[in-house]
Design goal:
Shape: elongated
Number of strands: 2
CATH class of the largest domain: Mainly Alpha
CATH superfamily of the largest domain: MetI-like
Radius of gyration: 25 Å
CATH topology of the largest domain: MetI-like fold
Helix content: 55-70%
Length: 270
């Protein structure tokens, strides 16, 4: 049985379009990248907030964050995207009216953006929590001794160190999000996989269509992975100076005046 495999079909004009199929599929990659970047930005913001509050001593806030994580992490993504697209608008009339009046691709993109952002935020939150737990216990105590408030301790000491430690798993989450964007085809978003499937259904050249889509996915994933670099978890330039100034570990040049320790004062104390 001979395989129906013809790469020349990629250069044939797409259905209802003057551009060739390879360009048509590449256009779907634009939606894929846009969805990945916006969803990951939302997931990063929500994940840092939820993951930080998950370590809070306030039981109420900690419980709410735990419910958030377990809910969005354990429900299958395809179920969540159907709920956001078909169920949620029924309870929000103005949102349903908006979906019925705008171009469908915008409502599809917004739904996928919210769904994947919330889903990924639950995974990022657990990584942030683990990163905070891995910070040496002596550092928060040292920050407290230097006069840091609890908020300053999180902002200038704990979170910067935790974020440096979780860069590799965050990169993996970004690549997983690239793959998860394919679920958006179930609600009609014309992303990469959907357009490759359209070429296969119209030309019966599924091999050529998905080989081209695979190459594009590899390029996107490789670019996402390239953003991960090895960094020292405790850079010397980020440590407090001898004058007692407080330096932010993310922005080393940012200083907050702190207590000044002199040699004379230390001698008197002894």
């Amino acid at each position: 049985m001979a395989l129906n495999f013809d790469l020349n079909s990629l250069f044939e004009p797409a259905l209802l379009s003057d551009e060739p199929w390879w360009s048509y599929i590449l256009g779907g990659a634009g939606w894929t990248v846009a969805l990945m970047l916006t969803s990951f930005a939302l997931a990063l913001v929500l994940g840092i907030i939820v993951g930080t509050l998950r370590t809070s001593q306030n039981k109420f806030l900690s419980t709410i964050c735990e419910v958030w994580i377990e809910t969005f992490r354990n429900i299958p993504l395809i179920v969540q995207i159907f709920v956001w697209f078909f169920v949620v608008p029924e309870f929000i009339p103005w949102y349903k009216d908006w979906m019925n009046t705008v171009d469908p691709v915008y409502s599809q993109f917004l739904t996928a953006f919210i769904c994947m952002g919330f889903f990924t935020s639950s995974r990022v939150a657990e990584q942030v929590r683990a990163g905070i737990a891995s910070v040496p216990k002596g550092l928060p105590n040292a920050a407290k001794a230097l006069g840091f408030t609890p908020i300053q301790t999180y902002v200038y000491v704990i979170l910067p160190l935790a974020m440096r430690l979780i860069v590799p798993p965050l990169t993996s989450e970004a690549m997983n999000l690239v793959k998860n964007t394919a679920v958006a085809l179930t609600i009609g978003l014309p992303e990469l996989t959907m357009r490759a499937n359209e070429m296969g259904e119209n030309t019966f050249q599924f091999f050529a269509a998905y080989i081209w889509a695979t190459i594009i996915y590899i390029v996107i994933a490789t670019t996402s992975c390239a953003s991960s670099r090895k960094r020292a978890p405790f850079p010397a330039s980020s440590l407090p100076s001898k004058r007692g100034d407080k330096r932010c570990l993310i922005f080393p040049r940012l200083r907050i005046p702190g207590p000044t320790f002199s040699k004379a004062s230390s001698t008197q104390s002894n």
